[in-house]
Every structure is written in C-alpha cells, then in structure tokens.
Amino acid sequence: MREFSRWIALFVILVTASVAWLTLGSVMLVRTESTETDLRGAVSGLWGEALVQPAPDLVFEWQTSERRTELTGPADAQVSREVIERVSHQRALQPDATAIEVAVDDDVRRKGLMWFPMYDLDFSGTWSVTHPGPESGVLHVRWRFPSADGYYDDFRLAIDGVEVQSGEGWGQVLDVPISVTAGQTVNIAATYKSRGQESFVYRPGEGVVPLRDFSLTVKTDFSDIDYPGSAMSPSERRAENGGWALDWKFERLVTGRTMGVVVPSPIQPGPLAAEMSFSAPISLALFILWLYVLDLLGRVNLHPMHYAFLAAAFFSFHLLFGYSVDHLPVEAAFGASAAVSVGLVVSYLRIVTGARFALREAGVAQLVYLVGFSAAHFWDGYTGLTLTSIGIVTLFAVMQLTARVDWSQILSSAPSRAPSPR
C-alpha cells in the first residue's frame, strides 16, 4: 500500500525530529540550571537577596521586688526567713502608629541565559509607641536588618529625634535600650538605602499582630507589578511617573500577613528556548499534515526525503535560537532564527515545487505553525490557547479540502493520486 508506506515514513521523520527537539530542550534546561547555580550566589553577593524588613521589636522590661520564704540550716533544724529579691518582667509592645515610605527602582540585569530582577531600595519609616503600664523601666528597641549579609547605605536609626550611635550588637539585630516612665511615648525613625533582588517585603511582626494607624507606601518605577504569594494586596494604588504608588492604610487591623511587591523579570531566555523545543513537534506535525493534504490533492508532489529536509529546516530555528539567545536580545535572536528557518524552507521548495507554492502555501504555513506558535511562548498563559486555535483552524481546512477524497482509492495499491475536489 503506497500511501500507507508514506505515512510510516512521515511518522518516522516526525519521531526522529521529536527526539532531536527533546534532546535540545533538555540541553537548554541543563545549561540554564548550570548558569543559575553558578551565577545566583555571585549575583546575591554583589546585589543582595530578596529583602524582608521586619518591624522593630519593642520589648518593655521592668523589675519588681518580691518577698519569699526560704529555709536554711540542717534538715532537722531548719530555720525559715523572708528574703526580698528583684524579679525581671517583660512585655511585648506594638506600635501605636506606623508610617513607612519605600521606593523600589527596577535594575534588571542579565547574565548568560538568565535574567536577575535586581532593584534599588530607599527605605524610610517611623514608629511611635506609648508605654501603657504604670511601671517605669527599659524599653528595648530591637532593629532587625533584612539580611546580615546585606549592606545599608546612609543607615540612620533615631530615638525621639536623637540618632543612635551605639547599641548592644551590630549584627543583624541592633538592641537599643531606652528608659521610659508610665505613659511615655517613644518615637522611632529609620532610613537606609540598599539593593535586593526579586521582591521587597515588609513584615509587621511575628505571627498575628494588631496594626493601629498603619500606613505603608511603596513607589515603583515599573508598571508590571505583582505581589508575593503570602502578601496582602494594597488598599489602593495609583499610576505615578511611569510606575505605581501602592498604599496599605489601616486604622485598626489584626493580621499575620506581610506586604510588599515583586520586581518583574523579562522572559528567561533559557527556559523559553526549552519550552519552544518541547512544543516544536506539534508545530511540525501540523505543517506536515498541511503539506501532505496538498500533496494528496495533487497540488504538489513531495517525497518523504523532502519532508525530512523540511523537518531539519524547522529544527534549525530552535537550534539557532537556543545558542544565540545568550548572545543577542531575545527578540533579535527570535527574528534571526525565524528568518533563517523560513529562508531554508522557501528557498528549498522554490526549487522542488516552484516559487508560487513555496511562498504562498508553504511559506505562509511555516509562519503560522512555526513562527506564530513559537511567538505565543512570549505571552505566558496563551501558548495552549494559540495551539488550540491553530489546531482547530487546521482541522477545519483539512476537513473541507478532503471531504470528497476517495480514501478507499488512496489506501488501495493503485499508485494514482487523488483528484483535487471541485
């Protein structure tokens, strides 16, 4: 059966090309993972990591005198006496008011097959707390830096307008003791500039905490905003200077959630090249189906070897894109790879079938099945919809073209071609 043999040959071509694409996609993923492993540590060392700024811990500590009875002397002649000892007490306090302003400026950097979403941070915050108890004692203001490995340019911590010059420890936690009396209000202010990557998060406290008179404003210079997975969305947002001003404002709230913003990252070249390679067999299958139907209708006469060369031309797109995307901008690498692949197909079929078929039927089909389908990977979430749409349109066209084909004659041993439908 002549046509059945051609089907087997086309299937073998498709399987062989699919294996090549799966191998290429796997290589792209390995290269990406290797690059990310080698560079992420170095990039974090240079630019910092995702910053999570906790609210200052406020712990009030005071002492009381307590009487207790103790026994002294031998067991058979113990004498009791009263002693007075100093007992320390602690109470965690929450700010009565919080006002924070943060500027996050995008500074995305690319190294090899990876984009790293860096940003510059300008942090300024004030907190006020009133000691509610009747005791006098010491309020420990414990300032926690986002990271012990980070750097904080022009860092200033002021208590009641007086800049802190020393404290207990300058590690990730700076403990500043302040003497307070009953009903005294303490104002805390902190500012610094730093760098981070991926996201900035403000954490109001450990666990569920009450927020009173709370205000956090995050200003970005980028418009494509997102929020960390466990973070609270802002109360309101407004466009400002090409970016957004995001406001979290609450009069009284109890929450255990954080607040912050995720810095957008361009499409990662390595994973993009791998995804295109993994989905390429579908594009080739639709392209082969389209050409085979035209071949079946007598518009062209193609040998399985012609299909093999066309599959190789399709593969050249992904091969060139995979190894040029780490040297060129993604868009430039995509355009160059598409031009090379389409040029290979059109120039080859121009000799085999003539210029008209090469440009109109084959060239347009390649633009749809290869270039169009691959371009859909640039828009996250639309790849499946694009494939479905192209597949349905192809199915409709094939059904219409082959509706009057005599399949019993096609599958017989007769070598005649099916006539074109009228």
Could you give the order of strands across the largest sheet?
10-9-12-7-4-14-17-16
Identify the overall geometry: elongated
Proportion of beta-strand residues: 25-35%
Gyration radius, rounded: 35 Å
Report the count of strand segments: 18
CATH architectural designation of the largest domain? Sandwich
H/E element sequence: HEEEEEEEEEEEEEEEEEEHHHHHH
Termini separation (Å)?
Answer: 26 Å
Mind summarizing the main beta sheet?
8 strands, mixed
State the secondary-structure class.
Answer: alpha+beta
Oligomer: single chain
CATH fold assignment of the largest domain: Immunoglobulin-like
Mean pLDDT: 85
Tally of distinct domains: 2
State the low-pLDDT regions, or none: 414-422
Give the fraction of residues assigned to helices: 25-40%
Please report the number of helical segments.
7
